[in-house]
Structure formats: C-alpha cells, structure tokens
Amino acid sequence: MTHQTHRVTFEPDGCNVFVLDGATLVEAAGRAGIILNQPCGGEGACGKCRVEVLEHAPEPTPSDRKHFSEQELERGWRLACQLHVTGDMVVSIPQQTRFFEQTVLTEGKGAFYPFEPNVRKIFMELPSPSVDDQRSHLDRIRDAAGQGPLTANLALIRSLPGVFTDGAGAVTAVFEGGKIQEVQPHDTTGTLWGVAFDIGTTTIVGALMDLRTSSGATTAAVAARTNPQVHFGDDVVSRISFIEKDPQGLEKLRERLLVCLNEIIAELCEQAGAEPESIHEVTAVGNTTMTHIFLGVSPSSIAHAPYVAVLREGVDVSARQVGLRVNHNANLYALPNIACFVGSDTTALMLASGMGQRQDICMGIDIGTNGEIALGNQDRLLACSCAAGPAFEGARIRYGMRAASGAIAEVVINDEIEVSTIGGGPPTGVCGSGLIDAVAELLRVGIIHETGRILGPDEAPRDLAEPLLNALTTFDGQPAVVLAAAHRSKTEQPILLTQRDIREVQLAKAAIQGGIGVLLDEFGIAPDGLTQVLLAGGFGNFIHRSRAKRIGLLPPISNDRIEFIGNAACAGAKIALASRSSRQEAERLSRVTEYVELAGRPDFQERYTEALLFTNAEG
Amino acid sequence: MTHQTHRVTFEPDGCNVFVLDGATLVEAAGRAGIILNQPCGGEGACGKCRVEVLEHAPEPTPSDRKHFSEQELERGWRLACQLHVTGDMVVSIPQQTRFFEQTVLTEGKGAFYPFEPNVRKIFMELPSPSVDDQRSHLDRIRDAAGQGPLTANLALIRSLPGVFTDGAGAVTAVFEGGKIQEVQPHDTTGTLWGVAFDIGTTTIVGALMDLRTSSGATTAAVAARTNPQVHFGDDVVSRISFIEKDPQGLEKLRERLLVCLNEIIAELCEQAGAEPESIHEVTAVGNTTMTHIFLGVSPSSIAHAPYVAVLREGVDVSARQVGLRVNHNANLYALPNIACFVGSDTTALMLASGMGQRQDICMGIDIGTNGEIALGNQDRLLACSCAAGPAFEGARIRYGMRAASGAIAEVVINDEIEVSTIGGGPPTGVCGSGLIDAVAELLRVGIIHETGRILGPDEAPRDLAEPLLNALTTFDGQPAVVLAAAHRSKTEQPILLTQRDIREVQLAKAAIQGGIGVLLDEFGIAPDGLTQVLLAGGFGNFIHRSRAKRIGLLPPISNDRIEFIGNAACAGAKIALASRSSRQEAERLSRVTEYVELAGRPDFQERYTEALLFTNAEG
Fold first, then answer.
1. Complex ipTM above 0.85?
2. Which CATH number fits domain B355-390+512-611: 3.40.50.300, 3.30.420.40, 3.30.70.890, 3.40.630.10?
3. Which of B250, B293, B301, B588 to mutate to test the interface with A (most CBs of A within 10 A)?
4. How confident is the model at residue B179 (pLDDT cuts 50, 70, 90)?
C-alpha cells in the first residue's frame, strides 16, 4: 500500500496540496509554490517561519512554546519548519513569512534590497503657464518632480502636446530611473505593474508584481507555460543548431517565444484584473542562450569552441522593440549573464540568496534542464555549469514525467515498494524526486549495485522480502524494477524503472557531483565548510535531502544546512523589478563571478568518472 | 557712376568676391563666408588676423610693421583688419586665422572648447577568444577601449555576431560619448564625418566636418538651401497656423524639411567625396519652432499666449529615427533652446562668441527673419526676441532681394546716388545692407525726414543737387526715390525705394532698437558699458556700421567695438560637433539665460514708439 497523504490548504492563496504523512509544512508550502523564509535553516531557532493553522492545528512543539505566547498558540500560531503534517489542515501564511517579500523588504540573512522599483508614478498638479512662467512642458514636469536631471526620449517629447492639449496641468508622470518614461493625463497612480520572467529552456514562468509604493511589492499573479521552442529541440545546443541551419531560424525561435511571453502577460493581466498598458517595466532572466534569442541576438558563438557569448551584461531596452505587449514606453531589463553556460538565471539565484554579500560560504544549485552551481561569499564567487541533462525533469526516463499531478514523487521501501504521488491519485509516471528516492532506496536494500546495475533475482540479497523479489522484472531485454503494478497505476500499465533509466540518473548525478567537487576544490574548502546548500528550481522543493545525498547528488553535509529556495531565478527577476539598487549587485555578481569551465579539466574528468559509481552513497 | 569694385580671390578656398574700393579684407573675407578671428576687435593690436597676400600686396601699414618681420612683409603677410582693398588681389588665409578653428582649438577671447568630438573611432585588433579567454564580444570591445563603463543599444548588440562572423578580431569601434555606437569590420578610421545644421526659417546651412583626431576639426564642405517650408508661410507663426489647420500639417512640414536636409547631406558628401554612411553625428540649431518641427514635436503652444514650448533643453536622438540619411546608428544632438522665440541658434551664437564665459559685457545680435539679442557675461545673461520681420532680408520691400549677385549692397550719396552691387554687375534689386545705406544716406542729405517721410521736391533742402532732385518720384501714388535708373538696371526698370519700404525699415529697426534698449536697461548698463557688439547672421557681414548706427539699428558705440562674426548659429553647431564638452556649456547657457518677454512691457512700448522716429540718428 502507498503512504498516507494529507491535504493542506493554504490561505489566503486558496490552493491545496497533498503531502505524505510526516512531511514538514515548509515542504508542503514549497509544493504549493510558496517559499517560506528560514534564516536558521529550519532548526526552529529563529522563529521567522510563523504560520497560523486555521483548522486542525497540531500540538505545539517546544520551539513553538519558545516563540509564541499562550494566546498565540491557542489561535494556532506555529513554526512551519517544526510542524509535521499528520492530518488535513488549513494554514494561513502571512506576507512577512514568505521568502521573497522577506528578502526584498527587510534585511535577510545576507541580501538587503530596499523596495524601490525602477519605475514609479507621481501625480502632479502643475501650475498653469503664464507670461511670468513660460517654462517648457518638459521643464515644468522636471521641476515638479523635484529631482535631479531627468532624460526623455523623442516619443515622450512628441506625446507631450497631446497630454497638455486641454491646458490642464493634472498629469501623472511615470519615471523610469532618471528618465521620464511617459506622461499621462489625470491621476493614474492607482495602478503600476511590472512583470518578471524566468525564461527556462523548458518552462517559462511570469510573475505580475504590484509596483505601487503602497503595495510592498506584492505578487499579484503567477503563470507558467512550456517554452514553445521545445519543438525545435530539448536543449539549447539543438536550438542553436536550428538557428544555424535556417536563415530565419533566430527570428522563428524568437517569435515562438514572444507569442508565449505575450500569452503569459495576457493571463497575468486577466488573473489580476490589470491592463497591459499599465505594465511599465519587465525584467527577465534565463540561460545565456535564451537571453540571446529573446533579445534577437544570434547565440551561434555560444555553441562552438571556444564558447563566446555576444552579451554578458544586463541591458535596458524598449520592451516594445523586443516585442512584448505591454505599455508602449515600458522598459525591459534583461539581467546579466555570467558566461556562455551560466546565465542570468544563476545571477538571479545569487541575487535572491544574497550569497555574494555574505561572509559565510554557501553553495547554490539550480537543477533544471541543466545544472548550474554557484559557490562563494562576499570575497570570491565561482560558478560552473554541469551538462546534467534533463533526467531529473523526467526526460529520457522511460516513465518519466514532470512534477505534476500523478507523478510518483516519493518512494519508500520496507517490505514492499511504497510510492506516493503528487495529488494523491493513482500514479501515471515518475518525476525527479521519485527517481532519486527510487534509486536511493533500491541502492539501500541492495537491488541496485554500486555500479548502477540492477541485480537479477539470483544476485539480489537473500533476505529480500517476497514483494521486492516480485518487483524485479525485465524491459526490452534489460533488467527493470516495477515501482507500481499495472492494477495500481492510472494507465493500467506497470510503472517501471529500467536499467537505462538508472544509467541516465548516473550520468546526470555524476555531472553535478563532479561539478560540486571541482568548485569546492577550486575554492579550497571541504563540503563541511559550507554553511548552506541552497537548492533552487521547481525540482528543488520536492527532493528528499537524505536520499539525494545517498545517491551522491548533494554533498555530504547535515540536512539542516540544505535549504530549498524554490524558483530562485524568478525570485531574482522579481527582486530586480522591485528594487533598482539590486541591479547594481546583479551587474557586480556578473562581473566578479569566476566561471569555471569543466570541459577538458582533468580533475573534472576524474571526479566525474568516480561519481558514475554510487560508492559515495551514505545511509 | 557706381563706386569702383575689386575682385579678391581667397586661397586655398579658391573663391572670388567683389568688394567696394576701400573695404577691409575682413569684410571681403566675410562676404566669401570666411570669418576671421579678431580678438582685438579689428584695431590692428592683437596681430591675430594674419593673412598672406599672394598677388598685389599693398604697402604695409604701421601695424603690419609691428607684427611681421621684414621677410614676412616681403612675402606678403599683412593684418586683414588693417588692409583696405584698393585693387584686385589674391589672398591666402591660414587655418589659425579663421574664426571657427580659432575658437575651437585654442583659447580665444572668452570661450575655450577643446577639439574632442562626441564620436570617435578606435581601431582594435582583439585577441582571439580561447578557452582561457571566454569574454563576450561586447566585453572584449569594452576592455580594448580601456575606458569606463560603456553602454550599447540593442541594434549594436544584434550586429556583433555578423561583425565577428569570420572570427577576425580586427574591428573599428565607433564610440559616441559613453556608448558603443557601431562596430565595423576592419580598419575604417580613415573617415569620420559629422554634419552641423543651422535650420533657419528662410535659409538652411549645412557644414560637413572632418572629425578625425588628426583633422583638427576642419570644415570639408558647406552647402545652403532655401527652407522649403517657405511655401507654407514666411514666418514661424504662419507655419504654426498651417500645422493647426491641417491634421497632417506637422508631418508635411517635417517631410519637406527632411527632403531639404537630406539634399544638403548628399551635396556635402559629393563636395567632399564622403559617404553618408560615414557620418556618425549630426548637430542642429534653429529657432524654437524649427527645432520642434524638425524633431516632429508640435509647436502649436509656441504661437499662443502664454507662449510655452514643449522642449527647451538639448536632446540626443537617433538621426535615422528623425529621418536623416546618415549612418544608421548616428546620433543627432539638437542644441537647447532658451525660450519660445529665442531658439538654439541664439544659444549657438552665445556658445560661439564665448560671451557666457567672459568677464566683460557684450551683446550679440542675430538679424535673420527675426532679430534675437543676447546680452551679458559670466555672471548674468539676458536674451530677447524682436519681431523685426524680414525687411532686412529683402522681404516686404518693393525691390527687395537677398544678398545675392546683383543686389545693391552699398549706397553713397554725394552729388548723385551711387550704388554698388554684389558681383559688380548692373543692379536687380536691393538687399539689407543697401537698404540701410540708402535710408541712412537719404536721411543725411535731408530727403527723408526724421519721421520717415520722403519729402517732396518742394520740401527738400534747397541746396539739393540736381540729380538728387531728379531722383524724387512717386510710386503707386506715394513718394519714392530712384536708386538706379531704368537704363542702369539689369531689368531695365528703375529700382525704387518707396515710402512703404521706408515704413518697413522703420518698423524693423524700431523693434531691434527697442529690444536693445530694454535689455540694456534690464542689465543696468549704458551702451558705453558694452565691450563689444557681435553682429551675426549672413546679413551682419555686409552692413556698414556707421550707417546702421545712423538709422538707430545699432547702439551708439565706436565702430571698433562692433564685430562681425558671420553665421554664428552654424559656428555654434560646429563647435558642438567638434567639442563634446561645449554641450554642457550650451545646456548651461540655455538654463541660466533669462528670457525677457518684450510683448506687453510698457518700457518696450515706449522705446519702440520713440525708435519709430529717426531722431537718434547720428552723423
């Protein structure tokens, strides 16, 4: 039988998730896309992850008693990191407990970015011109803004006579940094929106943020789509190949992407009841190839030795010129990349985690279609890219799938193989965390050898329980393991883990393990020197630390130092939207981070080869 | 008979002009469009206006003997301000004697602008990228430039892969201020051009400048055209009316203007053998209405009380976006205006004269279709606009014409009326300087009364010579004076000065005289407090100081303080092109200059009414 699952409802978001019995509320929230702030790393020490359990609050823990008054405890206040879900519950998560808002609004562990959007609106009632006050329209606005010198482009200047047609001086000026972006008649300060995009190779996420000073940088809507470029190839190299073969290739890929981005913008606006015309700024992160394609810059040189990008730094360009359907004068800030294979999504991770401003040393790992790793502190920063491939996203795995409803996300082996799915229904496939669990558990009970080979019934440990022996089968002439039998799966077909699947996991984890090892060596520290390992990516929120360590995917450090930070790429894009001063830090991170090229490094080759085995596995 | 004229040929320019016997070489050069530097105001004191008379050098003056060695005198070196033309001659004018180059390259009387164009080219042989040097294309260029942070726009970034297609690292980067404007394959530093435009209501002048560091800011070609907008009205107000009546009016006027500007660019390129693609920057000055129309900004609010411009300050915009056929990435800097009726042409005059940086107080007067006056020094600057109308350009005058071949440019009355024309041929009409001369001389001999009335034969002084009495006639029932009889004119019609013509001159000079008076009062000085009166405009080079003072057009100060500075508007545009630091001074001048609105000022009304009379006339 499968593990028991519980439904957790989050307020005010109103979304439900199903989690395994005993999971912490932090992980449940992560599954709902809500990342909680845990400065102490989930040890119940800092008291920051405060939530209010509205229905079915469990008994308070000793940590709860330390951080809440008797009255608060009665009302249901608990620390999320200490709360283990043992039944259905309804939980309210206040703004200040949420990761992003915490990072942006207050001084977190490392990063402090004030809420100070690059765009802002000021309503001004300008005095009527007279013979004694013949200042130009533009001077009038500039003087009223009471700021330093401001620039304006031709389109803005050309629009001014129309705005002042009726002689009325009641206007709203939209400022973008030191530039007057737009002047609108009357008071329009009631709305001011921005959109942050994370343009992944496989998935694109957009977030609509309320940028009014009064809003405190709330996220009003989030939407995601599969990157339509996947039709042209799963990975960046195959897309670059397409661009090189088809003279219109770059434009074709760019157009597909823009259709998708504009659909996301429309959906965000519909969710929040916003007008695209009120979106005055867009920020975007992505890997270096995605950034190039998005901006219409040929990424060809990225794919060929010696691997050179056209553009590293961040750019401010007209969002309309790029093709986004937002306000005509809106600005697009594409965050800076670090190297050809370490894009602005990694810069965003570093920005969101504040790792470049901290004294202690931490490591950020973003496992998406590829794996990027950043390591360091305020004194030195390293980054590398591991050609891990998309195995953990379910690709190239026989019954692989994304972390969606019906995906096996957890596997426990006692006397039999017990699986738990996202949503709690019958399984349809296996996602990254399920894959890690399955391999880790099969290794532990001895069904998989340290070389990765699935042992035959005759080779398996003698004390193996009957149901486990029965799970051993073959597929396409290769050994395989039945994770869920046909009568239990939604598809009425057994869900198998094949020998080939395990090879894919080996290759992927070896690439990441090798990259982590090289970065640690290069920095000159042992895994123990890391204060924290920050796991980013949708993937990161669902994997089980111990099992990821058991297969060697994560370095051997204590679980409490491994923190899930959710979609840090998107969080970084949101920070850049909410805080203009954070952009300087992003540009600095891009400049100072040393890119470590793994290809061709003998020490990487050695570590990679070693890591193909599961010998480092720990219990 | 007419005065004797002489031909003066200027080298290395190779152009000829005809001047009256006794004219100074400075005035002759001015007629050829060559403005000489005269820091001492033409007193033969400073020795800066050195020229070499190649043929028919006159006897050296005492000043010449002070400033040149015997050997130099023998070779023909003379001071232009002391040289009176008494025969045909050929003169070579070295670069350092010319006004503009002097102003730009060395410390002149007031202004010092280093030769430091906003655009510059750098040829760089970039090291080939390698696994050890994976800097982005853009970083590679930035590092090679060895300068501070540089920006780049999307078009530039998109062009880079094409430039680096063949992997070659030999490129020329075009820098525009702190921006990379373009990157070109191979070494293109052999050419770098800029164009300076003076967009007058009536006349447009363009100058092509060599902006290579080695060139010392030489002017390679100059071309002029009549502003085709004259079809829509003579003055700015009638053009604004057209824009207000026709919904497409602004675009129609703008298109006409652009056709003309592009013709000038083509002509300049042909003259100098340059490619439009090699023009990387354009500067432009004009009155405020012309600047607005040129930029596509509605000038409507300029024409109506309380008279407000949309734009005062200077702007940097894409030259292509504005419609100029130059390099795709070229920048256009439109110099800052001062007020609705004091445009960037006046800013340019102040810039070229350096009056805003001087301790002594001087006045600049630019008489074009209107008259603009600037007054002040480094501590305070005033400017006003006089609705003088186009009389001095020949408009609204019965036989009026521009200062072109056949125009009566000088009038002397002894026993008869003697006229001298531009080019020396038979007269076809009368231009501004001829008009001033004629009125001044007719006043002197008593044919015109101080009220401006032409006296009848019975009222005229009794001692009037017979030929003068015979010159009195009538036209259209009004008194008139024959300047050239039918048998002497090219048209075989008599060239008359009518009573109505004299009224036009009265109105025009009263407006300027009134404006000068108000500015002097406002500043709190008498005419005698002026170190210099700088006369700008094509017109300014041809008028005779004493006669202009006699009719009251110029304030009563000694002739040696009145200096002709030629097309100062164009000179200012050229300075802005040659020296980026001068633009800060232009912006400062635009900000600090106090605009004095004459309309509705009682003191102006009083002075204007007084000035309608010729009572201030001096001998």
1. no
2. 3.30.420.40
3. B301
4. very high
